[in-house]
Structures are given as structure tokens and as C-alpha cells.
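Troubleshooting log. The previous run stalled partway through. Resubmitting the same two chains, unchanged.
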Amino acid sequence: MTENAALLLPILFPVLAGLVVFGLHRPKSREIYVSAVLVLGALSAFWLCFQPDSHFTIWQLTDNISLALRIDGFGRFFVCLTSVIWVLVGVYAFEYIRHEGRDERFFAFYVMTFGVLMGVGFAGNLITLYLFYEFMTLITVPLVIHTGTKEAVAAGMKYLGYSVFGAGLALLGFFFLSPSLKTMDFVPGGVLDPAKTAGREPLLLVVFLLIMVGFGCKAGMMPLQAWLPTAHPVAPAPASGVLSGIITKAGVLAIVRVTYYIYGADFIRGTWVQYTMLTLTLCTVFAGSMLAYKEKLLKKRLAWSSVSQVSYVLFGLMLLTPAGFLGALLQIVFHAVAKNILFLCAGAIIYKTHKTYTYELAGMGKKMPVVMWCFALASLSLIGIPPTAGFVSKWYLAMGALTPELGAWGVVGAAVLLVSALLTAGYLLPVVAEGFFPGKDFDFAKLKKSEPGPGMTVPLILLAAAAVLLGMFPGPLSAFIQSLCGSLL
Amino acid sequence: MGKFLLAFLVFFPFAAALAGYLTGRRSKAGRDALVQASCLLELLAALGLAGSLGASFSWEGFCGLGLHFAADGFRLTMAVLTAFIWLLTTISSKEYFAAAHNRNRYYLFLLMTLGSTMGIFLSSDLYTTFVFFEVMSFTSWVMVAQEETPDAKKASGTYLGVAVLGGLVTLMGLFLLYSRTGTLEMSALTGLAAQTADKGPLYAAGVLILVGFGVKAGMYPLHIWLPDSYVAAPAPATALLSAVLSKAGVFGILAVSCNIFLHDAPWGDLILVLAVLTMVTGAVLAVFSANLKRTLACSSMSQIGFILVGVAMQCLLGEENALAVGGSMLHLLNHSLIKTALFMAAGVVFLNLGTFDLNRLRGFGRKKPLLMFVFLMGILGVTGVPLWNGYVSKTLIHESIVEYIAAAGLSAGQAAYYRWVEWLFLISGGLTVAYMTKIFVALFVEKNPTEQQRYDGMKRYVSRPTAVVLAVSAAILPVLGMTPGLTMDSIAGLCRGFMNGEAPAHAVEYFSLTNLKGAAISIAIGAAVYLLLVRPLLMKKQPDGSWAYLDRWPRWLNLEYGLYRPVLLKILPFLGALAARFACSLVDWAVAGLRALLFWKAPEKVEPPTDDYFGVYPERPHPHTISNSLAYSLLLFGIGLSITLLYLLFC
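Second attempt completed without errors. Output:
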């Protein structure tokens, strides 16, 4: 494989360029600078994604430990998704953050996080992944505590504590795991050395569970989900959006890497660990939706919803079937799109009307029609109503579950997905209904249009179009994922 | 050409909806004209489809599995029927909504519903059916909620809730079916039950699929949304809900019953039980109602029950199901036409009086020949009076039951059971006569005790376009009914292929004595019920000497508020949330416990010593949150490292 130093570009450029933002106090120049950096960073990432598979070793510590980057199929998937969402949400944030203040700090960390995420996506072995993973946690804390309220700081610390603990569990797992590996690099199908694993299978399975729970923390999987509904709602809306939409997916990425590129699906299939993970993810899917249904604060409701929706992805991954994998990766994209829309809409509502509770939103569809239409479409996608995107991913997830090998597990799994979809309808549709049908007595004379500016609505419209069009035409995306799947399963 | 027409029929209304919406922001009149022209164009396209039967159109990859449409006799009939009724109601909508808010929204969703309904009726695989079924549920929801009164909001909430629930249950059924068969193509599923040895999972899938379609059809016990939504929706929308959208549910049930469970007797028995319950419950509720629109709504439910009896008989009769095939198809068609006329006429009454309350609208129809003509035709049609269309289809379904009882191979107990079904069929027909007589008498015979003079003076109670639409919709009914051999048999023949039915051995003598007897029994029962039950029990003499209609249906006897709402909205969420909250709090509790342990120390308050030689110590500042959490993280990290150490030492 060729060495390609350009791999450093999308990582170092935003991180270094982000530092400059601290010094840019004039809004206009800051906005131009930040957009330029984000677009250039995203373009460089795209350019790399179209390069053939390549590799770059940053630093060789010992014979078998090195910091290395690589481009491969799954990395491309994550990097492209992140780039698109990051640019769109960044544009939205220009106007939104103005009412929060301290814009320089927000955008500096926002831009730097982008670089770190590129590192997570391009990481070529476990050590590099761990490194960028921890960087990601640290650098997103300022985004969470941006408002600086006592509540936000406490939530930020909770986020930090859980994340460090989770990553620590995973690192602990690596220590036990490394003696059984041929190499630390990610290779489709796994790198377990059969000679070294013989007799150690039970230990390796326990270690697998340990790593899953550790990385699952970031993805909001039970039992370490508690930080998510605390930390996501207190962040400013754009940060909540990317935290829920993208950062949780970094946990998913780590889980994919360990499951499919280190262990290999065959090692896990049919073991107790697979069933334990299926149980954990299904419990999370249900509990997240259930508590979202009971939650009255809109952003917190959306955060609970993320807990549930990201576990759809993990459920699909743990099925270890091609259809399940396809459904899971589609769900990564579709959830990222839908959840970003929802958080950005919630943000637009807060920004314009300062309303935060779900029962305060009557007539919102008349005040800000574009925002609420986007909210409605994203809701449909999240529930999984055809022809929106969420339906397609749910279809493949269920197909992946309903295979003869999984038997009753598959049926229960599909049923839980649908119960959760029903709850999703229960916590999102009343908001839409109240927003658009405020009642006969609604005073149209007093109605004040309070649509936010194009800087906020255009990203929303683009994302909403994606939520619908990706559902109608999932072909190219599915084809790409299936090509990935070929080498993994 | 066929390909193009199929695509056009389904997707054009969506484009027209958008165009209409954008036009409507500039000009109301332009929008109305555009919407009506679109419906007309849709009708022409549907008629054009007759020239290309057998065509199919597929859009591979759409939504994953792709969309598949086909044109055959049944789908053609349904498409023409849909476009025709849509045109009629759209024309009358203009007058109905003349003074309403949110008209642009109404027309947007009206046309989108048309497109999705076409998508359902033209679909040739269950995946396509399902995709458009869900779209239809959501777009029609907006139509139900249109008025935004508290009742409409509540009813539309129930409508959507039940639709989403039903849709998801159906989806589960489709999951199971597809994972076993690998296809949802209707023609590929034909006779699947007969070829499968292990039928358990197939029945499970079938029942689950039935739920979603049953919801839309208003099948017992999933009918709970129906009366309230029909009453709350604006009259043109109700006409569509009853005449077309409920048939989309029936279409789904037919697609399952006539393909997967073709000639499958146990499935037929299941449908039969549900059908009879629907038929009887709807009729009884209609008799009790004292609200014009609610009576018509419950009547719709009851008539769907009649259709489903026909569907059940198709499965039971097996190869010899020609009568049942014709009967269910024709009753479907007849009910659509009848209810279009009746609901639009009810809309005219509402537009003038602002009420559906039988007591208040009494006597409104006197001296209004057009209104009377429309109601009379509708009523004679739906009650199954010979020479009107309902008679033909009811006779066919009735005869199919009789045929099954006479068939060989039934034990005495079974025969008695199906004889009961026959009697319930006739009694439901009788109740239809009773509640329709009740409406008719209230509107056209009785005088209003207070307002009669004003009512008699209302000469211009309907605009010209609406009058034409009403007259057309009503005049079709006797025309069809008087020429059963010419019109109705050929329609039934056209539709036979979809239901995989056989051609009848010989033409049916609709006006033979035996067939007339069934209608006569029903009418006699109806007269008895009206005279002996409705008038003495459901009416009460008022102090001023007039009689008033009472709604004597017990309030507590309501599935929705007595059972479904408490269970689905209170008990289950409570239990679920309790379990979820507990499971999600476990780690938080553990963290709280650990924190308490980590910062556990003697009480912080230091008593200032009384001795002045010692300094006064300030209270120790409370540990800052950040140090708390860091300490906690370090602790956890330390535990991790010690476990590693232990492992390295001892393993």
C-alpha cells in the first residue's frame, strides 16, 4: 500500500486553522474565515476519499505500536458524512451562536473538532483510534459547556467522566487483547491470530464485551448512556446537533472497527456475547424511546431519542448479517441527518421565541413554516414512514434480524424496533400536530412571522431534502455499503 | 402508453398538489380551477387506462425494493371510481370551503391523498401498497384535522395514532412475510397458504398485515377512530374517507385474502367473524346515533362489514366462489357511490344549518326536491331495495352464504353456525333500513317545531355546480340497479381476475322470487325495528308536544375511552417508563454511591472553639464540581489499572 502524507492534511489543517479563530473578533471576517476553513477541510477530505486505498505512518513507537492513518471504505463513509454535516451545521451556527455570545471560542473548538474527527475516521490502527477518540472527547467539552451556566458545567463534567471511563474500559480491553493479535492494524475480517487465541476464547469474549460497553458509552448504549440526555440538551443547538448526529457515531465507528476489523464477525457470531449485545441494544432502543416519550423538554426529548436511535445502529451491527450491516450503516446516515434537523429546528425555535417545552409550541407551524416543515419531515424519517429515509434503514435492519439463524431473537428484535417507532411517533407527532393545528381559536391577527434568516433555513432545507431523497433513492448509498460489506461478512 | 398512464396517475397529483399550492398563494380562483382541472385530467387518464390493460410499470430501487404498478380490470375500476369521486367532491369543495381558513393546505393534501390512493389501487406488490398506504394515512390526517375545532383535533389525533399503530403492525407482518418468501409481488404470492406446510407463521404474518388494512377499513375492533373522524372532517373529505379511503383498506384485505390465503377456509372463518362483528356493531351504533353524519359514518362501517362478509365467503367457498367475488366487488363499488352522494348531501345540510343534530335539522328537507331526490336514491341504494344498486350486491353476498350452507361437507353444527351468520346478515340489512328511515323521516317528513318557516324559506340552499354534482352522483344509483345484467355483471367480470375468482356457471336471476325474499325479510325487520324500537325507545316527547331524538348509547360503553386509551396511553407507558427509568438509573445510582464514598468524611462544620487562643477556622470550601469529577475519573482509571496489574500478576 502506498504511503500518502496528504492524509495529515484534513486533520492538521482544521486543528491549526482553528487556533487562529480565537483571534478573529470581527464577525464578518470570522464567518468568512471559518466557512473557508470548513469548506477547504471538507474538500481535502473528499479529495482523499477519492484516492485509492493508502496508508501513512506518523510515528513508529515500537515494533508493533505505531500511529498510523489509512484510507479505507468505512473510513470514507464516516469522513464524507461528517464533512457534509459539519459544513451545513457550521453555516447554521453563524447566526445562532450570536445570541449565545463568545463566538470565537465556539467556532475555534468547532473547527478543531472537525480535524480530530477526520483523525478518528482515518485512524489506521487501534492505538491511533484511541488517541483521536480521547482527543475528541476533550475537545468537545468546551462545546458542551459553552453557555457557561452551572448546569452546563456540571453536564460537561458528567460527559467527561463517562467518556473517559468508557474509553478507559476500551483501553483496558486492548491490553488484554493485544497478545492475541497478528497486528494492531484494521483488516477487514479481523486480525485475531488463531495460534494465539486457542484456549483463550472465553477471555477474549469477555474483553469484547468490555470494549463494546466502553465505546458504547459514546454511542449512548446502556449501561453507560446516562451522560447523553444530560449533556446534549445543555449545549448550544448546533453543538447538540453534531454531538447527537456525528459524535455518537464515532462510538459506533470504534465498535465497527473492533467488531469487523479486529475480531471479525465469525468470532462473535452465535456466542453469548452477541446475544448479550443484542439484549443491551434492544433495551436501549426501548428505554430511550420510552423516556423520550415521557420527557417534556424538547431538546432533552431529542437527546433521549438519540439514545434510542443510535442503538438501532448497534443492534444492526451486532446482528452480523449483511442486511443488518446495510441497515445499520444507512441508519448512521439517516439518523445523523434527521437528528441534526430536529436539533437545529429546536434551536431555531429557541433562538426566535425562547420556547423550550414541547407544550409551548402551539401554532409554531404558522410562525415559522419552513422550520416546522423541516421538523415534520425529519420526524417522519425518524419514525420510519415511507418514503422518507428512516423507513429504508428500518426495513433492512428488520430483514437482517429475521434470518433463520437468529430465530426468535430476530422476531423480538424487529418487534422492539417497531414498538420504538410507535413511541417515536408518540413523542414527535404531537409537536408537529400542535405546531400546524393550533386550533380554531388561534388568533391569526396576532400571528408574527418569525422565520429565521436564510443562514439558518438553507442548511435545514438541504438536510430535509436529503432526509426525503435519500429515502426515495437509497440505491447508490446502499450499493457503496454493500461493496464494503462484501469483505466484512 | 400503459406505463406512462400508470406513472401519470400516481405521480401527477403530487405535482399538481404543489402547483396548486404555489398558485393558491397568488390567486384563489386560479387554484380552484387548477385543482378541478387536475382531477378531471386524472379521471380522463384513468379512463384511458382501459385501453392498456395488462400494462405494468416499475420504478426499481425506489425506497429500496422499488415500486411496482399494474393495470388490470379491478385496478382500472378502482382508479376510475377514485378519480370520479375525487372530481365530484372537489367541485363541491369550492362551495363548502368558501369561507374557511387554510384552504390552500386543504387542497395541497387533497391532491396528495389522491396520488397516494391511486398508488395503492394500482400497486402490484404489497411493498408499494404499504408505501402509499402510509403516505395516504398522513396526508388524509391533515384533511381530518382541517377544521381545527377541539373535536377535530381530538378525532384527528386518534385517527393518526390508530393509523400509525396499524401501519407499524402491518409492517411487522410484511417483515415476516418477506423474510420467508423473498417477494411481496401479489401474483407471486397467489396460493401461498395452500403450498405451505407450516402455516403458523404465515397466519401470524397475515393477521399482522390485516391489522393495518383493517384499521383503514374500519373493521371491528379497530373501528374506534371512524365515527369521530368522519364527523369531525369536512363533508367533502368525509365523502372521500368513506367512499375511497376505506376501500384502500379493503383493497389490502383483498390482496391478502385473494392471494396468500386464496381459498383458505380457516382464514375465511377469521375474516367472517370480524366482518359480522363490524357489520352488526356499525348498524347498531347507527341506529342509536342522533346525528346525521354519525349515522352515515356508522353506516359506512356496517357496509364495510357486508363487503368483508363477501371476502370471507370467497375464502370459504373455494373454487365455487363466483357469487362472493361478484358480491364483494359490487358492494364495494356501490357503497362508494352511495356514500359519496349521501355525505355530500349531508354537507349541504351542514353548510346551511351548521349542525348535524337530527333534532335541529328536522324538517329542513321539506319542499327541497333535489335534496330529497339525492337522499332517497342513496337510502334506497344502501338499504338494498330492488331496482337500486345495493340490492344487487347484497343479494349476491346473501346467496353466497346460502350456497355455502347448502354445500356438502358441513356438519350440522357448522350449518347452524352459518345460518346464524345469514340471519345476522339479514338483521343488519334490517337495521340499515331502520336507521336510514330515521334519517329520512327526520329530514323530510317531520316538521321542525320552531324553525320550520325559516327552513321552508331557504330556497337557494345549494350552488349550481354542487347541485349538478349531487344529481349526477344520485342518478347513477338507480341506473346501475335497474340494469344489473348489463352494467354490474360486466364490472364484476372485469374485476374477477384480481380476486382469482371463477366465472359464474350461469347468469344470476336478480329479480327471482327467492332473491327478492331476502330483501323483503330485511325490509320487514327494518320496519319492525323502526316502529317498535326507534320511535318508542330512542325518541321522547318534549313538553311542547313534539318528539325529540335521544342518544341513548351508554357513555361508558366505548372501546376507545373505556379500553384503548387507558391501556395504551396510561397503563402501558407507565409500566414501560418505570422499567426504563429504573434500568437507566442503575449506573447513575452507582456513581452517586461512589461519589458519596469518595467524599465521605466527618461533618464539615467545625465548631468555633470557645477558647480565644485558638484561631477560628473557616468552613472548608465545598469541593468544586470539577475536582469532584476529576477525582472520580482518576479513581475509575486507577481501578482499571489495578485490575490490569492483578491480571498480569496472577494469570
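Takeaways: Strands of chain A lie at 2-3, 54-60, 66-70. Residues 2-488 of chain A form one domain.
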